């Protein structure tokens, strides 16, 4: 039967894709995926430390592994990701969970195979302080889906937003060679993938010749029928030439995820976001000039240190002005080692009350926007079918469900929106 593995992934798309690399490293060694940790010979936790809540949840899950290890001492427990890479993270994990066997970081993820091959029961803790450009590439990838695939274009972040731990655990920005990215894409399209998402903490600062707009143009020029997406963008780096390229190609999804975080210039400056609310709205206007029906989503952080009621109302006003089709809202979480951690924190009760008001407002805006889309006909990429009902996303990344009628995952179809349910659309094939 061979040996089996179980991977638990926490956090962002970057981690989701890196878990596909971990699965690739295990699969080329003959491991197959187990349905549960109890049934696995190797258990890997790919961790996140973006917020305290994430770490608390992971610690709880790691605590549960003690029983599995006691019942099956031969199981190998490995932990990686941002929680291990952060300063003192690995030591803290070993102290609290001494039964973990292998710990490695974000910069040496592709070494996991070698650590497993060499493992003879002696604990392995290997954290590389610095990133090694190119280290992340060329590893086997076992992809979770058959329709959409992730392709890294760059790693790391140089922005040092004052609340964010990412630059400390993912290192400095390094961009992959364009030829390597296009080769990956060509391979995936030849394998039948219909959607490619270009991935990076800040894709707009892609640093190879031609920049991000050049990469997008060349990627969209690849032959075949497919959908091209990218994440995540930073408002200070999203340029007009990128949006122009998007408007010129029907392969590029008419959707941009553009985290604003706050609508208050005072808070944006404390966050070190390097743009103002006015500049952000000008960028939105620029996007809508080229892509009038673009889907726009964003991240908003509520409760940043020293945030006043007036600051919060600036955020609500910006959200009401832009009208995002989707809004991801977060309560500020103090991260030790980041500048914001030393600023005056505001009471949790105030954060909770404010985020509840923002969510309630967005729960009015999102469905209203979906309502305005009823009657329109969209190109939809079918992603899955359950019980005769197909689910997919429109060109502007709206959820759409419709009767399958012979459609299969990976098909691009025309669907008329008949009604909406919350922010999702329900339609019929045209
Ligand atoms: S852009 Fe800011 S929030 Fe995003 S990963 Fe970089 S430092 Fe963190």
Describe the structure.
- By secondary structure, the protein is of the alpha/beta class.
- It has 3 domains: 4-126, Rossmann fold (3-Layer(aba) Sandwich); 148-372, tm_1862 like domain (pyruvate-formate lyase- activating enzyme); 377-429, Nucleic acid-binding proteins (OB fold (Dihydrolipoamide Acetyltransferase, E2P), Beta Barrel), CATH 2.40.50.140.
- Helix content is 35%, strand content 23%.
- It contains 13 helices and 19 strands.
- The chain has helices at residues 13-27, 52-71, 82-85, 89-96, 112-118, 166-170, 178-191, 211-220, 240-248, 265-270, 277-290, 309-322, 348-372; strands at 4-9, 32-33, 42-47, 76-81, 102-104, 124-126, 148-152, 154-155, 174-175, 195-199, 227-231, 255-257, 295-302, 326-331, 377-386, 389-394, 399-403, 412-421, 424-429.
- The protein has a 6-stranded parallel beta sheet with strand order 2-1-3-4-5-6, sandwiched between helices. Strands 15-16-17-19-18 form a 5-stranded mixed β-barrel.
- Strand 10 (195-199), helix 8 (211-220) and strand 11 form a beta-alpha-beta unit.
- Helix 8 (211-220) packs parallel to helix 9 and helix 12 (309-322) packs parallel to helix 13 (348-372).
- The mean pLDDT is 96.
- Iron/sulfur cluster binds next to helix 6.
Brief summary:
35% of the residues lie in helices and 23% in strands.
Determine and state the CATH class of the largest domain. Alpha Beta
Strand order of the largest sheet: 2-1-3-4-5-6
Q: Which term fits the overall shape? A: globular
How is the CATH topology of the largest domain named? pyruvate-formate lyase- activating enzyme
Number of strands: 19
What is the CATH architecture assignment of the largest domain? Alpha-Beta Horseshoe
Low-confidence stretches: none
Tally the structural domains: 3
- Average pLDDT: 96
Helix content: 25-40%
**How is the main sheet built?**
6 strands, parallel
Our count of helices gives 13
Strand portion: 15-25%
Question: What hetero molecules are in the model?
Answer: iron/sulfur cluster
CATH superfamily of the largest domain: tm_1862 like domain
Structural classification: alpha/beta
How far apart are the termini?
Answer: 48 Å
Alpha carbon gyration radius:
22 Å
């Amino acid at each position: 039967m061979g040996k089996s593995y179980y991977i638990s992934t926490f956090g962002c798309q970057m981690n989701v894709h890196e878990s596909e690399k971990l699965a690739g490293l295990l699969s080329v060694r003959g491991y197959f995926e187990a349905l549960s940790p109890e049934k696995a010979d190797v258990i890997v936790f790919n961790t996140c430390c973006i917020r305290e809540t994430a770490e608390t949840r992971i610690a709880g899950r790691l605590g549960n592994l003690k029983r599995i290890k006691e019942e099956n001492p031969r199981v190998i427990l490995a932990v990686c990701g941002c929680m291990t890479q952060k300063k003192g993270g690995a030591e803290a994990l070993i102290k609290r969970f001494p039964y973990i066997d292998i710990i490695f970081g974000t910069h040496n993820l592709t070494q996991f195979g070698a650590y497993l091959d060499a493992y003879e029961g002696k604990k392995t803790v290997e954290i590389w302080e610095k990133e090694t450009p190119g280290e992340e590439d060329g590893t086997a990838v076992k992809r979770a889906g058959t329709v959409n695939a992730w392709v890294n274009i760059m790693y790391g972040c140089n922005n040092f937003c004052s609340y964010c731990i990412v630059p400390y655990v993912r290192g400095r920005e390094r961009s992959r060679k364009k030829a390597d990215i296009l080769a990956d894409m060509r391979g995936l399209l030849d394998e039948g993938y219909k959607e490619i998402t270009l991935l990076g903490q800040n894709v707009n600062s892609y640093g190879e010749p031609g920049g991000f707009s050049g990469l997008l143009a060349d990627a969209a020029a690849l032959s075949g029928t497919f959908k091209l997406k990218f994440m995540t963008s930073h408002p200070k780096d999203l340029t007009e030439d990128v949006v122009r390229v998007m408007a010129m190609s029907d392969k590029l999804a008419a959707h941009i995820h553009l985290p604003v975080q706050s609508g208050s210039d005072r808070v944006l400056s404390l966050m070190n976001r390097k743009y103002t609310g006015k500049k952000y709205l000008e960028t939105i206007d620029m996007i809508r000039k080229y892509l009038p029906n673009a889907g726009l989503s964003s991240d908003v952080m509520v409760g940043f240190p020293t945030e006043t009621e007036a600051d919060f109302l600036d955020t609500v006003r910006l959200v009401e002005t832009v009208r995002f089709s989707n809004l991801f809202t977060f309560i500020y979480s103090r991260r030790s080692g980041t500048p914001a951690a030393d600023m005056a924190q505001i009471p949790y009760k105030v954060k909770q009350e404010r985020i509840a008001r923002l969510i309630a407002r967005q729960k009015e805006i999102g469905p209203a926007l979906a309502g305005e889309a009823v009657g329109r006909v969209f190109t939809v990429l079918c992603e899955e079918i359950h019980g005769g009902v197909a689910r997919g996303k429109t060109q502007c990344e709206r959820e759409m469900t419709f009767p399958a009628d012979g459609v299969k995952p990976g098909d691009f179809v025309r669907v008329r929106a008949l009604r909406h349910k919350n922010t999702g659309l329900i339609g019929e094939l045209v």
